TrEMBL record:
Keyword Amino-acid biosynthesis: no
GO molecular function, one term: dipeptidyl-peptidase activity
Domain Xaa-Pro dipeptidyl-peptidase C-terminal: 320-556
Gene source species: SAR86 cluster bacterium
Keyword entries, A-Z: Hydrolase, Signal
Cleavable signal peptide: 1-37
Upper taxonomic lineage: Bacteria, Pseudomonadati, Pseudomonadota, Gammaproteobacteria, SAR86 cluster
Protein's name in the database: Xaa-Pro dipeptidyl-peptidase C-terminal domain-containing protein
Length: 714
């Protein structure tokens, strides 16, 4: 069936009903049987949305069934666009949310971006490319013309889906009425994974996305010339990012933080205290004039329902009401939705335990910036154990120095998120400054700012700052952190080398946090120059220096005294979400392989390696043609290595592999593998990436790229 969009650039939406008729019948039975009494039944259908240049994007619809067939009922539409392969890799974990919102009366549209997953076209040259954003605008126009659509579109997603929702909203296309962005960034340079805080880093995500974008088009997985030209032979994105090691238009054109005035529609933000993107919400509340509903809880980079750690939160139930307010045919005034709303979780202060399933604390609602916040400034000065205090002292200026160990800091993980272990081992390679034992509780809510009057013995160095809680038994919990690339101390756009041994002021805002310091605890500020492998070690620095007992070295804490004026909220648990699609049920659930993480110390060459391995097996059922069912096995292996006695020499060796096993034993097993080798010396980065494709008869194709990049203040 063909639906005209009435767009001047001619778009078309094709829904292939005949090939999916059996699947739709199964969908009707399955999804009505699981619905609640007042929920909508729905069908699942696959189709195409054609772009102006003729490329077709693959779309999966969850279509609510009108409650009265005699009425021309229409529904608001929720769009998600991702490169994460909706027909295989992301199918199982995406479905429960689509099931929920479809039953609530939303027409759901899930689209693979151009050149990925089941869509046609060439893989874009980067994340959030201009082509991707323009395609999204065309998709929105097409969705508005669907017979079941009421013409009002919401765009949503977590991580990538939040990133591109924000960037599409910055264009203000017709028919887009609101967006929901979870765990997303407003600054693609300093607040994303490539140059966090202005410092180069590389993690498992870099491997995964550079591998995934070269894989075959689903669901047929055909190997032909079009596949090679459009995907396999396309340059991996990492090369593009390493060519843009400085902040600039490459990063800023998609960063809301530099274009707040472009946002003119309501946004629902979700942030996590254990997620690296948590600063986006408070900055949006400060800078956007549009209605904002912001929820910031104790979560990692995941949806709040079924969160681990918890407490979980019923975001879907809340978002459904919010969506209906903004996407309904007639929007009625609602004071809570029409203004800024900020709900946050105040952590009670937990022990450093990576296995915690629940975080103690309380929910509050307040304006932002918070009223009743007192900024308490603590100076750093020498004492018996180095001290952090509000007291003045007559002691003269003094200098602390730190011998830098490039491999230190592996306990900090791969970015400013996730649950972290006891920091005592990492603090041993840091300068630490402790307050006196607290005699009363202190609640911290907001951004902690740190100022250092510091120097180094080289032309470039990184400073990594952690705010910590020292428990009475000596255990140390990380509360928040931040870092600065010393060359960006004055301007991010134009890095400037340090003058060795020359002291300069460094300003480092730490990431948003909440915390309660309990009586008997101490506040600690920890300062180091390495956090490996989160940050790639500096090239030649060996020693850093910090001036104490000066007005230029201090930490400012946002102490919140408003608990008495803000009643605690009752926690709302989410409905169960363990709903699986029929084809996943037919062949079994997605299974994960045991993950491995290990720090390897080599005393012979004085090096330290961080090894991480993981894998998942996906069972890909085909309810129409069972003989096409397949199994997709994935594996990832990363190895960071750095030398403690040879400045600048660091490496990252990684590989990822997909093994596609057909159900028909007469067909070949396909192996697709990507290998990344990145190394550095004092002056350059050296990058090599290989892709290989093989079957049972041997190698089908190989492609290799190599390039050397100047370190350029990294």
């Amino acid at each position: 069936m063909l639906f005209d969009t009435h767009d001047s650039r001619r778009q078309a939406l094709l829904i292939n009903r005949s090939a999916l008729s059996a699947f739709v019948l199964m969908s009707l039975f399955f999804f009505s049987a699981n619905a609640l009494a007042d929920d909508y039944e729905y069908t699942i259908e696959n189709g195409w949305i054609e772009m102006p240049d003729g490329v077709r994007l693959s779309v999966t619809y969850y279509l609510p069934v009108p409650s009265d067939p005699l009425l021309s009922e229409t529904f608001p539409v929720l769009l998600e666009m991702l490169p994460y392969r909706k027909e295989d890799i992301s199918k199982a974990w995406a479905h429960p949310h689509y099931d929920y919102f479809a039953r609530q009366g939303f027409l759901m549209a899930k689209v693979d971006i151009r050149g990925t997953g089941s869509s046609e076209g060439q893989t874009p040259e980067r994340e959030y490319s201009n082509t991707e954003i323009e395609d999204a605008i065309d998709v929105i126009a097409a969705l508005a013309q669907l017979p079941l659509s009421n013409g009002k579109i919401g765009m949503w997603g977590i991580s990538w889906g939040g990133f591109n929702s924000i960037q599409v909203a910055m264009r203000n296309p017709p028919h887009l009425y609101a967006i929901l962005a979870a765990h997303s960034s407003d600054d693609l340079y300093t607040n994303d994974v490539h140059y966090t805080d202005g410092i180069f880093g590389i993690d498992e995500y870099t491997l995964s996305i550079n591998h995934m974008t070269g894989f075959m088009q689903s669901p047929d997985y055909e190997i032909n010339d079009a596949y090679f030209a459009d995907r396999f032979d396309r340059e991996p994105w990492l090369f593009n990012y390493m060519r843009h090691s400085r902040d600039g238009d490459f990063w800023r054109k998609g960063s809301m933080g530099w274009k707040y005035e472009n946002i003119q529609l309501p946004i629902y933000f979700i942030g996590g205290l254990f997620d690296g993107y948590r600063d986006t919400l408070p900055r949006a509340l400060e800078n956007l004039d549009t209605p904002i509903r912001g929820i910031l809880g104790p979560w990692t980079h995941a949806w709040p329902n079924g969160a681990n750690p918890g407490p979980e939160w019923a975001w879907r139930e809340d978002a459904s009401k919010w969506w209906k307010h903004w996407l309904a045919d007639e929007v009625l005034p609602n004071e809570e939705y029409d203004q800024h709303y900020f709900q946050f979780f105040l952590r009670a202060g937990n022990k450093p335990d990576t296995s915690l399933s629940e975080i103690d604390g309380s929910w509050f609602v307040s304006d932002w910036p918070l009223p009743d916040v007192e900024v308490q400034t603590l100076k750093l000065f020498p004492g018996d154990n180095d001290e952090l205090t509000t007291s003045s002292t007559e002691k003269p200026l003094s200098i602390d120095s730190l011998n830098i160990v490039p491999s230190a800091g592996s306990d900090l993980g791969e970015w400013w998120g996730q649950l972290l272990p006891d920091m005592r081992a990492t603090d041993a390679y840091s300068l630490t400054y402790d307050s006196d034992v607290l005699t009363e509780a202190l609640s911290l809510v907001g951004i902690t700012n740190v100022s250092l009057f510091a120097a180094a013995d080289a032309t470039n160095a990184n400073w990594i700052i952690r705010l910590e809680d020292v428990h009475p038994d000596g255990q140390v919990s990380v509360i928040t952190g931040g870092a600065i690339n010393g060359s960006q101390r004055m301007r991010r756009l134009i890095p400037t080398s340090l003058t060795p041994h020359e002291y300069e002021e460094l300003s480092i805002p730490l990431r948003f946090t909440t915390w309660t310091f309990k009586p008997g605890h101490r506040i600690r500020l920890a300062i180091s120059n390495s956090a490996f492998p989160m940050f790639w070690p500096s090239a030649s620095v060996k020693t850093s220096y910090l001036t104490l007992n000066t007005e230029k070295t201090f930490v400012s804490l946002p102490i919140w005294n408003g608990m008495a004026n803000h009643p605690q909220l009752t926690q709302t648990r989410s409905q169960a979400s363990n709903v699986l699609t029929p084809d996943i049920i037919r062949l079994g659930p997605v299974t994960g392989r045991p993950a491995r993480s290990e720090v390897i110390i080599n005393k012979l060459d004085n090096s330290v390696s961080v090894l991480r391995e993981s894998g998942v097996t996906y069972y890909l059922g085909d309810t129409v043609q069972p003989e096409k069912s397949r199994i997709l096995e994935t594996q990832r292996h990363t190895l960071h290595n750095t030398r403690n006695d040879s400045t600048g020499h660091t490496s990252y060796k990684a590989w990822a592999e997909y093994r596609l096993l057909p159900s028909d034993t007469h067909q070949d097993t396909i192996r697709y593998r990507t290998t990344i080798n990145l190394s550095s010396d004092e002056t350059d980065f050296h990058l090599n990436i290989q892709r290989t494709l093989t079957n049972d008869n041997g190698e089908i194709r190989r492609k290799e790229w190599s390039e050397t990049f100047p370190r350029d203040h990294q």
